[in-house]
Design a protein that fits this description.
Bound molecules: fe (ii) ion
Radius of gyration: 18 Å
Number of strands: 12
Oligomer: single chain
Order of helices and strands: EHEHEHEEHEHEEEEHEE
Number of helices: 6
Largest sheet: 6 strands, mixed
Shape: globular
Structural class: alpha/beta
């Protein structure tokens, strides 16, 4: 199977890029499944049922998130009732929402559908998606991602060997260590959060596709998707500023990963950096 992972979608320009570029990418890469990090989809901070709905309508099957999870209070609605929305696994027990899910994919252009427990209908191939957050230079401090991810992966592997992990973290060392730690146990570990795409895509020795950061989807003529001036002013003066979402040079960043259905091992990983033509 072939999946596309889309790096942090920032604001309306990011949602617009997904809407306009995904059909083309789906055709070009014959995609079976699309996962996107949506933590910045609402005005650059957080996610709402409306922005998530737009992303799903654009053809994304599953949305992951990260440290901006709580920026919009409407996120509670997604955490409570949207199975296609994941939050980092390593929040304390009792936090609403969930960190992983197992979804069916029906091949080209299929839609995901997790059968109810105990449902005996014959089902298609399945993919597990896991969202985990790092702890180095990250707020808030969460539970140990290594310990919890390993337990969760063990559980998921009882149901499918095709497992995609979005590791939302800042430090390259933590991300690389996490990829190496899960090598051979999952199909892919792709990092998010820094909004800067790295050039270290590779298949690790155990068969796990790895990329330290997918980059972000939105306006690249800015600072990580925001207007440049307020960011410089904050660094210059230390005074808080309002960071508006930037506008220009909109790009979709991510990675296309091909996975062997039978073994769950990655066959290839290719970075994606696709410009939205100026309207
Ligand atoms: Fe982000
Ligand atoms: Fe983040």
């Amino acid at each position: 199977m072939k999946l596309l992972f889309i790096g942090d979608i920032v604001g309306q320009p990011g949602r617009n890029a997904v809407k306009n570029l995904l059909p083309k990418l789906r055709e070009r890469h014959a995609l079976d499944f699309v996962i996107a990090n949506g933590e910045n989809s609402a005005g650059g901070s957080g996610i709402t049922p409306r922005t998530a709905g737009e992303i799903f309508d654009a053809g994304v099957d599953i949305i992951t998130s990260g440290d901006h999870l709580w920026d919009q209070k409407e996120v509670m609605e997604l955490l409570g009732g949207e199975k296609r929305f994941l939050r980092p696994l390593n929040y304390p027990a009792g936090t609403p929402g969930r960190g992983s899910g197992i979804f069916e994919f029906k091949g080209r252009g299929g839609s995901p559908d997790e059968p109810a427990r105990g449902d005996a209908r014959p089902t298609g191939p399945k993919i597990a998606v896991l969202n985990v957050q790092g702890r180095t230079f990250m707020q808030p401090p969460l539970d140990n991602p290594f310990v919890l991810a390993l337990e969760e992966v063990k559980r998921l592997r009882e149901r499918t060997k095709i497992i995609f992990v979005d590791f939302h973290a800042e430090a390259t060392s933590e991300k690389i260590a996490f990829g190496r730690f899960l090598d051979g146990q999952v199909s892919a570990v792709v990092g998010t959060h820094t909004h800067v795409q790295t050039a270290d895509e590779q298949i690790l020795p155990g068969g796990t596709a790895y990329l330290t950061d997918a980059g972000f989807t939105g306006p690249h003529d800015g600072c990580l998707g925001r207007e440049i001036e307020p960011v410089i002013k904050k660094f210059l003066t230390g005074m808080p500023q309002r960071f508006e979402v930037a506008r220009n040079r909109v790009q979709l960043h991510g990675a296309v990963i091909e996975i062997d259905d039978a073994t769950g091992k990655a066959i290839s990983i290719q970075r994606v950096s696709e410009a939205l033509p100026a309207m």
